[in-house]
Amino acid sequence: MKHLTLEELTDLIWATINGLGSTGPCHVQAAADMLLTMIREHGAKLDTVVNLGRAVYLQLCSIPVPRAKDNVLRAISLLARDHAPQLVATFLDFSIPLDSHAFQLWRALGAEQPMSCQVLAMLLAWLQERPLPIGASDSGPQPKEKKTYLRSLAAMNALRELQFTREFKEAMREAYPQLLLALLTQILYVLELNLPEGPQAGQEAQGAASPSPQSTSLEALKSLLSTTGHWQDFAHLELPGTWALFTTIHTYPLAVGLLARAMVQNCCRQIEAVACQLLPALQSQEVRARKVSMLILNEFLYSPALLRVLPEQTALTALARSLRDPSPEVRVLSLQGLGNILFHPEKGSLLSRQLPPFLDGFFRSSEPVVVRLMGTVSDTLHRLGAHGLGAQSLSIAINSRSFFEDERDGIRAAAVALFGDLVAAMAGREPRSLRTQVQQSLVPLLLHLEDRCPAVATQAKFTYYRCAELLGWQLRHTLFCSLAWARGLSARHFLWACLTSCSQEELGIHFAQALSCLHSCQRRIKTRAALFIGYTLCYHPRAASQAVNDSDKMLLLRAFEDLKKGPEPGIREFATRQLSLLQEVAADRSGLQPSSLTGQTPSAPPVATAWSAPPRPHRARWHNIFPFERKI
C-alpha cells in the first residue's frame, strides 16, 4: 500500500468493502482485516468517507463472522479520528428509524473517549438545526430544509439510544445542561411540526411501525434524567403523571415549569450548570430556545443556588431585557419573572395574610369553588418560596387532611395535592407539629392508593412519596419504583413494611387509623385497610393488641370474611389465614368455639393462640406468600 496512489488505494478499499458481502467466511474475514489495516495506515488522507460510511452500513447486516464485524467497527472508530463530521452526517441519513446496525456504527464512533464528546457535540449541533415547521408556508419546506429537518429528528433518535451505552455514558453526564435545554426545545419543535403520532397506513400491517417523533422526543428526555442519576427529578414527574403535559402544545409550558420546580425542590446539583446556559439561550435567534430558557429561569428564581452563578441584578436585567422580545409569550413570561418574591420581599406578608380567608372557603358547598381555592393555596405556597408560612403551615395541614375522606372526588384529589405541596414547601424548615401531621397522614394516603378516583390515587402516590422525603426514609428509590410501577400483594406488603419500619413509635396510631377505614364506603380502601391490619397482626402482634378491643375484633372478623369472597386468590388465602387466627383468639377470650363466631367451619387450622406471640412457623408461611418482601 505504500506504493499505491490515492486513487489506487481508494479502489482497493472499495474492493475490500465489496468483499465483505462474500458468501465465504474466510473471504469476509480477510476483507475485514485488510479494511482495518488500510484505515489504520491511510485513513487520514481518504476523501470518499461519506460513500465509504454508507457502503459499510449496507454491508454490515450481511457479515456473518463476529470477528470480521468487530474489525469493521474498529475501522470506523479509527476513521472517526479524522473524519467525524462527515461520518456523523452520513449516519444521520439512515437513523430514521434507528436500526441495530446503525446503532452499532454510532457506538463505534464514540468507542474512544475523546471522540464520544466530539460526536455528542456534533449531534447537539444537528439537533438544533430546526427549519420552519411543515405547514408554516403554503409551499412547505424546501428540499434543503426538509433534509435538515429530517437530520434533526435523526439526531434526536441517536441521542435517545446512545444515552444507554457505555461509550457515551460519561459524555452524557458532562453535557447534561446542554442536553436538557436542547431536548426540551426539541419537544416543543416536534409539537409545532404537528406530525402524525401513529404509524402511517400500511406500516402497522407490515410490522414496520416505528415510534413517532413525539414519543421519541419525550422518551429522550425521560432517559436523560434516568441515566444520568437524576431519578429524584424523574420521580417528581412520573408519580403525578406530569409527562402527559409534554404531549400538547398548550400544556407544554406547565410541564417545563414543573420539571424546573422539581429540580429546585430536590436541590439538584445541576441547577448552577443549567443556569449558566440560560443567559446565552435568552439571546438565541430561535424563539423556542428563548421560551424554554425563560420558563426555567422563572422557577430557578426560587433556588438559592441560582444566585451563586447569576446575581440578583443580572437576573433582573435579563428579565427586563426580555420585555422587549419579539415573541409575546416570552414577554409575558419575563413579566411573570419580574413579579417574583425575590425582587419584592414585601410580598411575603401580603400573601400570608391572604391565606386565612382562602382556608375558610374550603367549607363552601360548591365543589368547583373549593377545588379552585385549594389550588390557589397551593399556588400561594409556591410563590412564597423560601419565605415560608410559619405557624400557618399547621392550619393548612389540618384543613387539607380533613378532606381526605370527602365524598366528592375532585375535593379529595385537590386536598391530597395541597397537602403534598405543603410538605414540599416546608421541607427542611418544617415545625415539629407539621411532622406529626405528616406521620398521621401516612396511612390514609397509603389506603387512598386504591381510591376509586384515578386522580386521587395519582395524587396519593406523589404525596406519600413527598412525605417519605420529608421524613428522611431509607430506600426511597425502591419506594418510588413500587409506587410508580409495582402491583399486587408483594408491592402492597413492601409499602406496608416501609411504613412500619420507619415509624415504629406511631404504629398504634397507624393501626387505629386502618381500623377506622374498615367503615369506608369504598370497597378497595376497605380491602387495603384489612391487608394493612393483617400484616400488622402477623409481624407486630403486641402493638396491635393494644389498639384492638372486642368490637374491633368482630369488625375484623366480618372484614376478613368479606375478603374470602374476593376475586384475587392471594387475598383469599391471606384472609383465610387471618380469619383463622382471629377466630382462635376471639374464642380463647370468650370461651366459644371458633366455628360459633361465624357459623362456619374454619378453612384452616388455628395458627396462633394469643395476640402477642404468633409461632415462628406461622410467620414463615407469610414469607411464602410475600416473596418480594423476603427478597428486600
Automatic annotation (TrEMBL):
It holds the Pfam family HEAT_Maestro. The keyword Repeat applies. Residues 1-120 form the Maestro-like HEAT-repeats domain. SUPFAM superfamilies: ARM repeat. Residues 592-602 have a biased composition (Polar residues). Residues 316-583 form the Maestro/Maestro-like HEAT-repeats domain. One of its GO terms (cellular component) is cytoplasm. InterPro entries: ARM-like (IPR011989), ARM-type_fold (IPR016024), HEAT_Maestro (IPR055406), Maestro-like_HEAT (IPR048465), Maestro_heat-like_prot (IPR045206). It comes from the Eukaryota. Keywords: Repeat. Residues 591-615 are annotated as: Disordered. The keyword Repeat applies. This is Maestro heat like repeat family member 6. It comes from Rousettus aegyptiacus.
